[in-house]
Amino acid sequence: MATPSKFAAAAPLQAPRPANATEIEFVGGSATLPTGAAALLKDVAAKRGGAVIAVTGYGEATSDDPSVQSAALSLGLSRAQAVANVLTRDGVPQADVRVGAEAAGRGASVRLVQ
Asked: Which residues have CB under 8 Å from 54's CB, separation 6+?
């Protein structure tokens, strides 16, 4: 049986996701929206009615080390802001978009808040 290398990259910690969320997958380490995300977000914006949209970006933290957590929160916030920018461009008032970030997890989630 092979022993794991102490230099192997750790998988990102996973954050719990809301059940009614639309998921956006990002390329690892990037806050650039992937191809197709704009169309998905346009659909969310069209379905919102008067609801507030909650956007959470996740930062791919691989440990609980404070510097790793800080960098991951920054990435998560950048992802959430990228999603929020598309929603406001699609006509959602900025006041109706709530942005948040978590260090653990990957990508971003978008959900309607009634």
From this structure: 18, 98, 100, 110, 111, 112, 113
Query: For residue 87, how many C-alpha atoms fall within 13 Å in the half-sphere facing its CB?
Result: 28
φ, ψ dihedrals at 85, nearest 5°: -60, -40
Q: Examine residue 10 and state whether it is found in any structural domain, yes or no.
A: no
Q: Which two tokens stand for residue 6?
A: 């102490």
Model pLDDT for residues 7-61, shown as the tens digit of each residue: 344 555 555 555 678 999 999 999 999 999 999 999 999 999 999 999 999 999 9
On the 0-12 / 13-18 / 19+ scale of CB atoms within 10 A, 54 is: middle
CATH number, position 94: 3.30.1330.60
| pTM, 2 dp | 0.83
With respect to residue 17, please indicate whether it lies within any of the assigned structural domains: no
The residue range of the domain holding 34 is 22-113
Domain contains 2: no
